[in-house]
C-alpha cells in the first residue's frame, strides 16, 4: 500500500484542461506567468544526470526554498495553493510544470507539450545548495551547471531566452529590472538586448552577457535574435526536456 500511496498520478486530458483553465483565470487576474516559469525551472534544474538526484519533483517546496537562488519563489507556490486545493489530484511537481507551460502560452509563446505523472519528493529528498546557476558567473560555470543536468550549449542559450519574460527584483536576487520592453510578452528581443550589449533601462546579468562572449554559444544568440521561429522550435524542445528531468513516465 505504501507504494500506491506515493504512486504518481497520470491525469486525464479533461483533468488537465480544467486545471489549465484555472491557471488562465489566475493569469488574467494576476499576471504572474514569469515567476511560475522560474519556479518550474528551479525545481527541475537541480537534476544530476549522473546519479538521478534532483529534478522535477517539487522538492523546492521544502528546505531548498531557503537556498538563495530560490528567493521569492514561495510567492509562486502561494499563488498556486488555491488551484492545488481545488485539484488535489495533480501532484505539486506536475502543477509547477503545468503552470510554467500555460504561463508561456498565455504570454504569447509557443505551446509546450505537457505530460503528467511526476511524483512529489519527500522533504528528505531535497538536494544541497549550489546546483542552480550563479548570475554573476560566466560560460564555464553555466556549462558546469547545465551539463550536470544533461544539457548542451545550444540548450543553455535557448533556455536562457525565457528571460524575455519577467524581471529581477532587488530584494530577491539583488539585481533589478526586466530584460525586455514588455516583460509579460514572449519573444526573442532578449537576444537583441544581448547583442546590443544591453539597452537603456533593460537588464543584462553577467550570465546573460556570457552567452555572447562565448564563441560556441554566440552563434545561437545570433540565430535566435534573427529568427523567432527557430528560437521557439529550439525552446520548446529544450523546455520539454527541462520539464521532464528526473521524470520517466
Ligand atoms: C542561465 C542561467 C540563469 C541564471 C544565472 C538566471 C538568473 C536569474 C536571476 C538572477 C533572476 C532574477 C530573480 C529575481 O530577482 O526575481 C532570474 C529570473 C528569471 N529567470 Fe532566470 N536564470 C537563468 C536561467 C533561466 C532559465 C533556464 C529559465 C527558464 C527556462 C529562467 C527563467 C527566469 C524567469 C522567467 C525569470 C523572471 C522571474 C520573475 O519575473 O519573477 N532563467 N533568473
TrEMBL record:
Gene Ontology molecular function: heme binding; peroxidase activity
Coiled-coil intervals: none
Keywords: Oxidoreductase
Zinc is among the record's keywords: no
Pfam annotation, one family: peroxidase
SUPFAM superfamilies membership: Heme-dependent peroxidases (SSF48113)
One record GO biological process: response to reactive oxygen species
Protein's UniProt keywords contain Oxidoreductase: yes
Plant heme peroxidase family profile domain segment(s): 90-249
Transmembrane region(s): none
Family per similarity comment: Belongs to the peroxidase family.
Protein name: Plant heme peroxidase family profile domain-containing protein
Amino acid at each position: 500500500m505504501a507504494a500506491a500511496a506515493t504512486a504518481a498520478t497520470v491525469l486525464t486530458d479533461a483533468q488537465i484542461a480544467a486545471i489549465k483553465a484555472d491557471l488562465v483565470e489566475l493569469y488574467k487576474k494576476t499576471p504572474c506567468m514569469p515567476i511560475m516559469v522560474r519556479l518550474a525551472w528551479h525545481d527541475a534544474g537541480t537534476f544530476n544526470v549522473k546519479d538521478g538526484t534532483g529534478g522535477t519533483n517539487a522538492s523546492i517546496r521544502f528546505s531548498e526554498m531557503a537556498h538563495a537562488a530560490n528567493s521569492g519563489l514561495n510567492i509562486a507556490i502561494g499563488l498556486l495553493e488555491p488551484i492545488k486545493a481545488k485539484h488535489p489530484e495533480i501532484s505539486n511537481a506536475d502543477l509547477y510544470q503545468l503552470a510554467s507551460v500555460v504561463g508561456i502560452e498565455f504570454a504569447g509563446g509557443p505551446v509546450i507539450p505537457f505530460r503528467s505523472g511526476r511524483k512529489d519528493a519527500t522533504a528528505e529528498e531535497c538536494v544541497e545548495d549550489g546546483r542552480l546557476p550563479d548570475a554573476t558567473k560566466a560560460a564555464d560555470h553555466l556549462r558546469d551547471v547545465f551539463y550536470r543536468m544533461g544539457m548542451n550549449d545550444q540548450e543553455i542559450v535557448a533556455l536562457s531566452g525565457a528571460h524575455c519574460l519577467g524581471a529581477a527584483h532587488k530584494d530577491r536576487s539583488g539585481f533589478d529590472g526586466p530584460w525586455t520592453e514588455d516583460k509579460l510578452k514572449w519573444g526573442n528581443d532578449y537576444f537583441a538586448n544581448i547583442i546590443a550589449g544591453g539597452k537603456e533601462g533593460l537588464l543584462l546579468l553577467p550570465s546573460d552577457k556570457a552567452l555572447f562572449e562565448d564563441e560556441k554559444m554566440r552563434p545561437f544568440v545570433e540565430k535566435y535574435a534573427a529568427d523567432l521561429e527557430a528560437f521557439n522550435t529550439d525552446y520548446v524542445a529544450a523546455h520539454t526536456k527541462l520539464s521532464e528531468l528526473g521524470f520517466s513516465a
